[in-house]
Automatic annotation (TrEMBL):
The keyword tRNA processing does not apply. Residues 10-64 form the HTH lacI-type domain. This is LacI family DNA-binding transcriptional regulator. It comes from Mucilaginibacter angelicae. PANTHER family: HTH-TYPE TRANSCRIPTIONAL REGULATOR GALS (PTHR30146:SF109), LACI-RELATED TRANSCRIPTIONAL REPRESSOR (PTHR30146).
Length: 342
């Protein structure tokens, strides 16, 4: 890298590569931390000057080691679950006079990695996040952890990372949903889902398969419909094709936007819910009760998950919470409505 080349983005990761040091060491050296030797601090400062490293606008608050700001990174805001979780987070941070920066990845790993790279320079004191569905490489998250910024995951978590995590009992929830459909008389149940890494998707698939197996039904891969993770008409077409080919009498939708796609697909095929096909969805949308027919849902404790995530984060920031990272599992609730009526 040539000093003065403004087209190159010089950040703490750049300095770390240049000096063969960790980003945590670079961060501490730039903050004049007592546990970094004077020699290392000098090397870091000289490299920063040579490469034209410019701290972000929050540098003054970094010297005080507090920005009174936390980041919230989520896949989308249209999903009712995430908007309710943000309300729960806000209920904790507002009384503490903290601010929240909300980042939307739009379920993109690339956007997520770019956001965490930006945060690594000390823009915030802590992070609460739910990962994008296509996040498999977690090196960008590990890099941020190395700077000492505490991270709390909620809902979509990374199993290979050591961090505080707030999740729901997705396996049991899917098991409950499938069992509910079986008890309503369904014999051929399909799972409508999206592709992706997050553990919640595999847990829901496993719960669905286990419920069928426990009732003497062999689950076929053909019964699993994989849609896109976007709100598009393409999903309606995918579900219509599946309905024509497999003729399921029950559907479990694993994410909120697939409920709308399922209803539209059934409507276009003139299939009546629940007479021809019964539907249950993982969703917190408040309009579920006024759909035609009202939708049976797996209701996640979104508000309380957000609140708990914020309380754990502030426990880490204050030093009150010093024990090992924890994973809290919060139960969801089946709310039966007309879409699964017998």
């Amino acid at each position: 890298m040539t000093a003065g080349n403004k087209s190159d983005k010089v950040n703490m990761k750049t300095l770390a590569r240049e000096l063969n040091l960790s980003t945590a060491t670079i961060s501490k050296a730039l903050r004049d931390s007592y546990d970094i030797s004077p020699e290392t601090k000098q090397r870091v400062m000289e490299a920063a000057r040579r490469l034209n490293y410019v701290p972000n606008a929050y540098a003054s608050s970094l010297r005080k080691q507090s920005s009174n700001t936390i980041a919230i990174i989520i896949p989308e805001i249209a999903d009712s679950f995430f908007s309710q979780a943000i309300n729960g987070i806000e209920s904790v941070i507002a009384p503490k006079k903290y601010h929240a920066l909300i980042y939307l990845t739009h379920d993109s790993y690339e956007r997520e990695a770019s956001m965490l790279d930006d945060l690594a320079s000390g823009r915030v004191d802590g992070l609460i996040m739910s990962v994008a569905s296509n996040t498999q490489d977690t090196s960008h998250i590990k890099t941020l952890q190395e700077t000492g910024i505490p991270i709390v995951f909620f809902d979509r978590v990374c199993e290979d990372l050591t961090a505080d995590k707030i999740v729901t009992d997705d396996f049991n929830s899917a098991y409950t949903a499938a069992t509910h459909l079986l008890q309503a008389g369904c014999k051929n149940i399909s799972l409508v889902t999206i592709s992706g890494y997050p553990s919640i998707l595999s847990a829901r698939e496993q719960g669905y398969r286990k419920a069928l197996a426990d009732n003497g039904i062999t689950s076929e891969d053909a019964g699993i419909v994989t849609c896109t993770n976007k709100y598009t008409n393409e999903n309606v077409g995918i579900i219509k094709e599946h309905l024509r080919a497999m003729k399921p009498d029950g559907i479990i939708a694993t994410v909120e936007h697939l409920a709308t796609s399922t209803y539209l697909a059934c409507d276009e095929l003139k299939l009546q819910i629940p007479h021809d096909v019964k539907v249950v969805c993982f969703t917190n949308q408040i309009t579920a009760a006024i759909l035609n027919p009202p939708l049976t849902t797996i209701l996640q404790p979104a508000y309380n998950m957000g609140k708990q995530a914020a309380e754990i984060l502030f426990g880490r920031l204050s030093g009150r919470l010093v024990e090992a990272e924890q994973e809290l599992v919060m139960p969801s609730q089946l709310v039966a409505r007309a879409s699964t009526a017998s």
